[in-house]
């Protein structure tokens, strides 16, 4: 992770940057600064990305790095932003890992998609396939090369894997892959109905101890069947007996799902995981669900704005410190930061479904409130949580 360690400096000097350089959006100070846990957040809009730099103060040095909620995929972009920040403030760097990586390993920028690209998506091919949790990307890259007429949407929650595959796409000049670095369970809900021919879920993490984290669920199955075209296929491959049994139970409980099961079937390309399990002579199960019906169109018209007329003066006391659980969703106001340049608050919040939570900031400033760096995924559960968040801001 790119970061710089600098000699301690007067962080209020950043306020002058906010005034003269509109790439710097805010400076916010952790409420727990008085307990010696000094943390500041700097909002940035840089090279088309909106993200946050975190400053953690230590006695001898300050550590500056991107936060995990908004971190862009392009590591070189983060490095350039850190270098610019240090230069504009005249900081003395004591340690850094921000030397730019070679341009030949640049990410395929056009393949890198964000949530907002799925609000009114213009797909570059008529035929679409999705791979959930592509890991090293071996299967995704292979399929895309074999089927140039199909757009492959790879959704991966693990940022370094998404970065690696974006580099491969650039190196190999592949034009029919989109990469989304997000939770696939959420993103699937943004996909249009009857749009995909295949959804691949190969060797998902079994999460035996935390089953709510599993990709496969009744909800995921319903969404997959909505997104698949008639005769489209959801293909699960797993080496885990537990997960296999769990998937069978989940698929059997759904009235409309027709599925087949194969043991140790061959596919054209195997992943590193599969090779490892085969070498250990483990059984590999393939469960294929075929979509048999045409689904109704899904209208996604949720609006995640707040009503400025109803907003009360922002104050940390408005927000409970413990997670609040509602019918089908939760809200957890994790941390409050005081805005430094103009009176206001920045609140780190997680919310939504228990198994598909969103992590965002709420930016409350100048009589307005909005999510930062971007609105949540437009799911019904997120919308219900958003309405409840509004109650904390209006009440
Ligand atoms: C065990 S690996 C398998 C990778 C690859 N499919 C293979 O067969 O080698 C599981 C992958 O799923 C990703 N993953 C887990 N949960 C996810 C989610 N909710 N959305 C997207 N990706 C997820 C993990 O980051 C990891 O890369």
- The domain tally reads 3
Element order: H for helix, E for strand = EHEEEEHEEEHEHEHEHEHEHEEEEEEH
Note the overall shape.
globular
Instruction: Please state the second-level CATH architecture of the largest domain.
Output: 3-Layer(aba) Sandwich
The helical percent reads 10-25%
Notes on the protein architecture:
The chain is α+β, with helices and mostly antiparallel strands. It has three domains: 4-96; 107-290, Rossmann fold, CATH 3.40.50.150; 308-394, no CATH class. The protein has helices at 14-20, 75-89, 138-146, 159-172, 184-187, 218-227, 241-253, 272-279, 380-394, and strands at residues 4-6, 24-30, 39-46, 49-57, 62-66, 93-96, 112-113, 127-132, 150-155, 177-180, 196-202, 228-238, 258-263, 285-290, 324-326, 329-339, 344-352, 357-365, 368-372. Strands 1, 2, 3, 4, 5, 6, 15, 16, 17, 18 and 19 form an eleven-stranded antiparallel sheet that branches. The protein has an eight-stranded mixed sheet with strand order 7-10-9-8-11-12-14-13, with helices on both faces. Strand 3 (39-46) and strand 4 form a beta hairpin. It is globular. 37% of the residues are buried. The model has no long low-confidence stretch (mean pLDDT 93). S-adenosylmethionine is lined by residues 132-136, 155-158, 161, 183-185, 202-205, 215, 271-273.
